[in-house]
């Protein structure tokens, strides 16, 4: 059973956008035991798409196409597919109804291009797309499957998770597969690998351990494939316990959920409220906290204090503190936490201040110098980071570290 | 003249890392008039690499390989290349000297794996790598070229810019290529397509128009290839003007820069300061504004007012307004702007309030009901959105619309 991904778009070939869809699909399918042998990107030309589909279908059992399904002229994928299967294009009433309904709902009228969009190759099986107007399409020939999806990431992701995955599991699945994910923060991949070395060396053949690093985070994923699902689950659970015992100090979850979701759970359990006082992260920590459904139960608000005057006026940071220690200092973030607790009347507050770059550093405080503080009325913890010069990377990393500090603060509390 | 990129690595197929090398190469080559017809990613297996090289060399004049040149066991690219050209592996004294010197310099000793690394296919032309120990490799056969480079981005980039680009420019004569990008916000791809229909229909054969949509945004890209660069640029500029005249109301930039960068420029030009008062976007607009280098020149801070009490206490929203109209109302966001202007002492303020979902709606105000306001002391503009139930999508879309409203507000101002 072999899978190939074909991504369509001139904009990828000329480097205007980076193909993140394939990586996402790769992760998802790999997790469910499907092996991707090749990723191919071609332009919007008819001939290019045709021969990519042709050789993909010759080489693999399943071909996943993304891109080229929008309503405009440069999207000719559907016609090429009809051509490849040697079928006519037919009008899909189902799709037309859906599009009409959607546009009525948002109070707009449809255009001829939208009607055009409803013509599909006659042999199609539609895959419902909750997130947009272009449905996914499933085709079969000689027991092989071709699937075409829009290139818009959240539409593609919805169709993959809710439509494609269950259907291909039914059609192609053989050996049971299972995973366990352990989420860690704070130390790098190679150091974690060292600490779990002996556990990894003693894994049975049918279990693999993968390290999936992102900024400041590493996910450890155990993947097993075995005829007996029961036995597989027993062994996986045992191995998770062994790893947990070895690196308990850096684990924030033994399931595949994000740090903000973990923090969300803990804050609700403990009935605590939180606010943020952000300088260098410019609201990004608040955004991360409020990305989780239900966050209004504990998140009350923030003061984003980019300018020093806002730090003084809105967060009661002392002028002398700023003069003596600077805005990027332990003293300033500590006062920011205190000011924020008072102003926002929450149980916990987080503060950040730093130089995110690419410019703005000094010899004493180079670009990438960042202070984080977190605390309540009784206690304030601080952390200094020394990062690189990449602005967005620094913002992301700082938010990850701040959320991890919050997580540790929440599990450390004897009295919530 | 046709180029193909082949990226080698299991870690890309399983989505552990995203292939950013290909996009970078695509941008560089496209800028210099080379057309990339295909990007292929394959795993670390000998057979996979061999057939990717074989079909790449059959289809294209130039094949660029990245990855698979490190000192570890799974890097077998060089042997496959020797195999493909049917030549022996030979020890490269030049490379060995360089590696020995480098390790002496950093005070370490070499390992047998480093000597192993110096065996190269006999028909190689080495491409100097200033950034690392593995050189790039140039091979020719039947007037076609195969180039192999390490996958480490800064090493690959050095070799591409300083070695590959000058050499391929010398070897392959290319047709000049040029692009123009127009960025729009506010209306969908199919509606824009309709409005520029006649312009698109009258484009010469050598110019293509592509629509690249994202949430609330569409980029229009004109790509042309022509023997005369001068003529090409003249026609492209003329076509851009035609499009601009047709859809001036939705264009925010006639170059490829983001809305926040455009807004950044305008605010700096006009010497205006800005703050945000965010409820439903939870700091995300502030994050977008502060993602741009130099934003501290105009962005002073924000009040994120998730809880109603914060709206009242920090932004002076009247209790009666909240009771009568609700937190998600035109009246509330208008008061939030006023309160924010006063509190943050900025020239302009943006406010948002809405129900982001997936739950929390009422019959009168279903999930996806969002109000945005933007204004200064003289004037406040408001906008109502009616979106879907996808929380992150709603946050992203609302921020895009708010930034677009800010852009329009800035160009509407008679007196800055």
Describe the structure.
2 copies of one chain form a homodimer. Chain A is α/β, with parallel strands linked by helices and 416 residues long. The first copy, chain A, has 3 domains: 2-172, Molybdenum Cofactor Biosythetic Enzyme, Chain A (3-Layer(aba) Sandwich), CATH 3.40.980.10; 177-253, Alpha-Beta Plaits (2-Layer Sandwich), CATH 3.30.70.2860; 259-412, CinA-like (Maf protein), CATH 3.90.950.20. In chain A, 43% of the residues lie in helices and 25% in strands. Chain A contains 16 helices and 17 strands. The first copy, chain A, has a 6-stranded mixed β-sheet, sandwiched between helices. In chain A, helix 12 (284-290) links the parallel strand 13 (274-278) and strand 14 (299-305). Chain A is globular, with a radius of gyration of 26 Å. The model of chain A has no long low-confidence stretch (mean pLDDT 92). Chains A and B meet through helix 1, helix 2, strand 2, helix 6 and helix 12 of A and helix 2, strand 2, helix 8, strand 10 and helix 12 of B. Strand 2 (35-42) of chain A pairs antiparallel with strand 2 of chain B.
Task: Sum up the structure in keywords.
homodimer; 416 residues; alpha/beta; Molybdenum Cofactor Biosythetic Enzyme, Chain A; Alpha-Beta Plaits; Maf protein; 3 domains; six-stranded mixed β-sheet; five-stranded mixed β-sheet; globular
């Amino acid at each position: 059973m072999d899978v190939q991904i074909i991504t369509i778009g001139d904009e990828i070939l000329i480097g205007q956008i980076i193909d993140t869809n394939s990586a996402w699909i790769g992760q998802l399918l790999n997790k469910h035991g499907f092996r991707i042998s090749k990723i191919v990107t071609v332009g919007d030309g008819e001939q290019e798409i045709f021969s990519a589909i042709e050789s993909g279908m010759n080489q693999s059992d399943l071909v996943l196409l993304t891109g080229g399904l929008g309503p405009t002229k440069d999207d000719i994928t559907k016609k090429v597919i009809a051509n490849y299967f040697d079928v006519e294009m037919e009008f899909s009433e189902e799709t037309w109804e859906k599009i009409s309904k959607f546009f009525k709902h948002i109070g707009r009228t449809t255009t001829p291009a939208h009607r055009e969009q409803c013509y599909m190759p006659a042999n199609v099986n539609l895959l419902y797309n909750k997130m947009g107007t272009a449905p996914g399409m499933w085709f079969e020939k000689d027991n092989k499957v071709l699937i075409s999806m829009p290139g818009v990431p959240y539409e593609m992701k919805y169709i993959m998770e809710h439509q494609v995955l269950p259907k291909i599991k039914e059609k192609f699945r053989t050996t049971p597969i299972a995973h366990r994910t352990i989420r860690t923060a704070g130390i790098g991949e190679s150091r974690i690998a060292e600490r779990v070395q002996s556990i990894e060396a003693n894994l049975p053949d049918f279990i693999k351990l993968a390290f999936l690093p992102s900024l400041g985070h590493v996910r450890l994923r155990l993947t097993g494939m075995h005829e007996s699902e029961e036995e597989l689950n027993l062994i996986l659970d045992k191995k998770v316990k062994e790893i947990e015992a070895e690196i308990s100090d850096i684990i924030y979850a033994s399931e595949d959920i994000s740090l903000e979701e973990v923090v969300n759970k803990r804050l609700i359990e403990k009935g605590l409220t939180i606010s943020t006082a952000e300088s260098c992260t410019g609201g990004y920590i608040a955004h991360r906290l409020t990305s989780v459904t239900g966050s209004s139960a504990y998140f009350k608000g923030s003061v984003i204090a980019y300018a020093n005057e806002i730090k003084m006026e809105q967060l009661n940071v002392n002028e002398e503190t700023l003069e003596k220690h600077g805005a990027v200092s332990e003293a300033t973030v500590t006062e920011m936490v205190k000011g924020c607790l008072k102003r926002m009347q929450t149980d916990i507050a987080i503060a950040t201040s730093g130089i995110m770059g690419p410019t703005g550093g000094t010899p004493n405080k180079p670009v990438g110098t960042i202070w984080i503080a977190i605390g309540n009325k009784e206690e304030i913890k601080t952390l200094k980071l020394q990062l690189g010069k990449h602005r967005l990377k620094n913002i992301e990393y700082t938010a990850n570290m701040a959320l991890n500090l919050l997580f540790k603060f929440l599990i450390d509390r004897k009295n919530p």
